[in-house]
Design a protein that fits this description.
0% of the residues lie in helices and 53% in strands. By secondary structure, the chain is mainly β.
């Protein structure tokens, strides 16, 4: 089974920084796509950033230049470094892993339980 657990949410100051981490349990492929999504009140869940096995990254336009996603395959972790935080970054942030089924890993799309990030003025 693949399970994801986020850490690092909380109350942060506008303009400040916060680092989220997500630790995976179970078998995670080095070819997996790992990412962060967020859902603000009254909004649909949106992709914040993701990172492929080869290190290719994508970012939502709203966070480009401010957030950085990274992964550590040995630790089966994905990180989201958030800088220059804005009030509109307030949301529940969810870790996600997508991977194909192989003889060695369970394929699918897996989600963490979410961690609340609240940016205050």
């Amino acid at each position: 089974q693949v399970q994801l657990e986020e850490f690092g949410g909380g109350l942060v100051q506008a303009g400040g920084s916060q680092r989220l981490s997500c630790t995976a349990s179970g078998r995670i492929s080095t070819n997996s796509l790992m990412g962060w999504y967020r859902q603000a009140p009254g909004e649909q869940r949106e992709l914040v950033a993701d990172i492929s096995g080869d290190g290719s990254t994508r970012y939502a336009d709203s966070v480009k230049g401010r957030f950085t996603i990274s992964r550590d395959n040995a630790k089966k972790r994905v990180y989201l470094q958030m800088n220059s935080l804005k009030l509109e970054d307030t949301a529940v942030y969810y870790c996600n892993v997508q991977q194909a089924t192989t003889p060695f890993v369970r394929g699918g799309s897996f989600w963490g339980q979410g961690t609340q990030v609240t940016v205050s003025s």
